[in-house]
Design a protein that fits this description.
- The chain is mainly α.
- Helices cover 66% and strands 6% of the residues.
- The protein has a two-stranded antiparallel sheet.
- The longest helix is centred in the first third of the chain and has 27 residues.
- The radius of gyration is 17 Å and the shape is flat.
Amino acid sequence: MKLRLSIFSLLLALIIAMPYSAFADNSEATFHPSAAQKGVRYSTDALLIALPASALVGTFVMKDWKGLIEGVETAAVTAGVTYLLKYTVKEKRPDGSDWHSFPSGHSATTFAAASYLMRRYGWKFGVPAYVLSTYTAWGRCFAKKHHWYDVVVGAGIGTASAFIFTKPYAKKHNLQLVPVADASHIGIYASMEF
């Protein structure tokens, strides 16, 4: 529990420390999206907010306070890992707007919400959320905001975070997380039983 709280605190601190420029729009881009690409961009931006918000509202409606904590942990780790990679890798977006393409934050966030809903409340909530998450990942590529591998890695980050921090999965599979570091690398070692 202490390790879990320490990892959560570290990632939350990283999120808070991110510079404002992560959210700034770079108007110097030379790419001019078509009307269809603009529409898909707007719809994926809406899903970025709507999917996690619906998971949060559903958790409140069900008065599932344990689930709320798991959802917050999932969201914090997903955001922390995603932004840490964005500022470490610095890959240029296909539309040339900035250097924060890898990994896709939209894919990470929507897949984290979908995986959380599926693990916590079952497939009847998970399947529609996964359909919307898949559309989001496709849409980010179609709108030239990400490469295909950006959305695959983002989806993996979000899904893994939800599967790790949802209690039934972690207990059932004896999940263990251990931080590791050497002179030039830091990371987390994870092991589980299948």
